[in-house]
From TrEMBL:
This is DsbA family dithiol-disulfide isomerase. Coiled coil: none annotated. Keywords: Isomerase. The keyword Kinase does not apply. Residues 3-204 form the DSBA-like thioredoxin domain. PANTHER family: GLUTATHIONE S-TRANSFERASE KAPPA, THIOREDOXIN SUPERFAMILY PROTEIN. GO terms for molecular function: isomerase activity; oxidoreductase activity. The keyword GTP-binding does not apply.
């Protein structure tokens, strides 16, 4: 069963949603049959990758919030994060263009490390206050994940994987995705937002039962033929 997840590195609800989804998946007997594919989505592609802003200033400039509204919002999200076991340090978080981070995610996908890299990027941005558009930082993150640093630097300094990032965002638009996180479950159902663990668990079970699980045979198997002959 394939799960496609659109998210952005600087989306706090994507970080929370990832952990809720993974907690739900661990409860399911078919968890090893689930393939997760992370898809790129940019909340603000207009940001300059050479510049950073703090979260409160960004919310004031981008959303038109007052400083009190901005502080209240980040405090509320931080409280939600703590309930999931996540540390949000918005006073450290550097808001910037996440396109380079998405390129690294696609490289990580090539090496079978996309979920691990997604987690590392979330923690880097929200907990440790790292610049997720900085080439040298991203190269060091790749190296820690076992990816050759020269390959990572080549990807980040060229147009390699640019098409894949843009294609993910085009697919999001085609699917009517306007906010993240957004989960498409085996091409049949969708879940949007950082839903509670129970919602993810129920949605995954229903999707599996309807699209993957074998049919339930309600008959007594009589009056039929198989490779060994016929029964009455």
């Amino acid at each position: 069963m394939k799960i496609e997840i659109w998210s952005d590195v600087m989306c706090p609800f994507c970080y929370i949603g990832k952990h809720h989804f993974e907690a739900a998946l661990q409860k399911l007997p078919f968890k090893d049959e689930v393939e997760v594919e992370w898809k790129s989505f940019q909340l603000d592609p207009t940001l300059n990758p050479s510049e950073t802003k703090n979260t409160v200033s960004y919310l004031k400039d981008r959303k038109g919030f007052s400083e009190n509204q901005s502080v209240q919002m980040v405090n509320q999200v931080s409280k939600m994060g703590k309930g999931t076991g996540l540390d949000f340090n918005f006073d450290k978080a550097l808001v910037t263009n996440t396109f380079p981070a998405h390129k690294l995610l696609h490289l990580s996908k090539k090496h079978g490390q996309s979920s691990e890299m997604k987690e590392a990027l979330f923690a880097a941005h929200f907990t440790h206050g790292e610049n997720v558009a900085d080439t040298e930082f991203l190269v060091s993150l790749a190296e820690k994940s076992g990816i050759d640093k020269n390959e990572a630097r080549q990807v980040l300094s060229s147009d390699q994987f640019d098409h894949e990032v843009h294609q993910d965002m085009s697919d999001a638009q085609h699917n009517g995705i306007r906010s993240v996180p957004f989960f498409i479950l085996n091409g049949k159902y969708a879940v949007s937002g950082a839903q509670p663990v129970e919602i993810f668990e129920n949605a995954l079970r229903q999707t599996y039962e309807e699209t993957v699980a074998p049919f339930k045979d309600l008959s007594n198997n009589n009056n039929s033929c198989d490779t060994d002959g016929c029964s009455i």
